[in-house]
Structures are given as structure tokens and as C-alpha cells.
UniProtKB/TrEMBL annotation:
GO MF, one annotated term: oxidoreductase activity, acting on NAD(P)H, quinone or similar compound as acceptor
Gene field: azoR
Family of the protein in this entry: Belongs to the azoreductase type 1 family.
Source organism of the structure: Lawsonibacter hominis
Record's cofactor remark: Binds 1 FMN per subunit.
Cofactors, names only: FMN
Catalytic reaction equation(s): 2 a quinone + NADH + H(+) = 2 a 1,4-benzosemiquinone + NAD(+); N,N-dimethyl-1,4-phenylenediamine + anthranilate + 2 NAD(+) = 2-(4-dimethylaminophenyl)diazenylbenzoate + 2 NADH + 2 H(+)
Function: Also exhibits azoreductase activity. Catalyzes the reductive cleavage of the azo bond in aromatic azo compounds to the corresponding amines.
Superkingdom per UniProt: Bacteria
Binding site residues for FMN: T136, R137, G138, G139
Protein name: FMN dependent NADH:quinone oxidoreductase
Amino acid sequence: MENLLFINACVRGERSRTRKLARRFLEAYQAKHPDNTITERNLCDERLQPQYPEILDERDALWNAGRLDQPMFEPARQFAAADRIVVAAPFWDLSFPAILKIYLERISVADITFGYDERGAMKGLCRASKLLLITTRGGRYAGTPLEMATPTMKALCVMYGIPEFQCLDAEGLDDVRQDRAALLAAAERRADALAEVF
């Protein structure tokens, strides 16, 4: 049995198109892999705080004391232990909502999600073999310099030692010239296919 960690950064909740696409993928994944568990982390519910000076000071003190078992590091420990990871985040301001950036800062902890070898080179410590980013965009930005979510998540996969990165997206959803329902339906079909092999 494997554990899939679902990071939900869909700020609009049930109204979110990204959340709808993620739900379709997760339902298809669970149907294909009934013995696996899905653990959801809803970042809106958690109200994580940015790394203000006092929070960073506490984090540094705990890390320097080797107290990586403390609650502050629980998100990083959970992320590092997951077998598969799915991140659902809409395309906002060229990347993704700030709550996801705050979470990524929280889990980027040396000796939990990444470390360094004897030559000082960074090495990933995460167990997951795959990370999937699920996103929706109002316009068409994939593969352009204006789309920075995918490169960021790809780079973090290298940092965390996650060998395979994939992106499931739906684009052009705010373009009134497009059949938006058809675009989302096509993305849902891709979600079904991807769930079989993820």
C-alpha cells in the first residue's frame, strides 16, 4: 500500500476549476489503486504564516538543536515520507497562490527533504518517485516565459530528489472565443488516463 499526498492550494475551494480537475484525477486514481491511501493537506484551512523573523528564529533554533521531530517540521516530514505527491494550484500572477509558496518554504528543511553530500552538492531526501502539478489557466501560457509555476516545481523536484515531474493542465478557460466546457472535459479525460499510470 502506498500513500499519495494531495496538496490542495485551491483558494476558491469548491468553485475552483483546478479543484474540479484535481478531484477528477484523484477519484480516477483511487478507483485504479484502491489499496492506496490519499492524504489531503488543505493549505487554506491551515493558515500557515509566512516566515516572519520570529518564526524563522524559532525554526533556526530548533534545527540547530537537532529537534527535527518538533511540530514545526511536521509538514516537511510528511512530504518527505509520501510515495506520490499531487499539488493542485491555479495559475495566479504567473505562478501559483502565495499559500503554496509559504508551504514550500515550510517543507524545504535541510536533513528532512534535502541535504548535502560529502562534496557539498545538494541531494534530495524525499521518498516520492513522482510529483504531479494540476493547474488551470485562463489564458494560454504553457511553455512561455510567463509561466513560472512549472519550472519552479520542476526545480524543487530536483532539490527534493523526486525523479519524475508531470503537469496536468487546462488552458484558455477565460477565453470567451473558446468552448470552455470542452476544454475542461478534455483535461478531465487526460486526468483519467494519467491516473492509470501515476
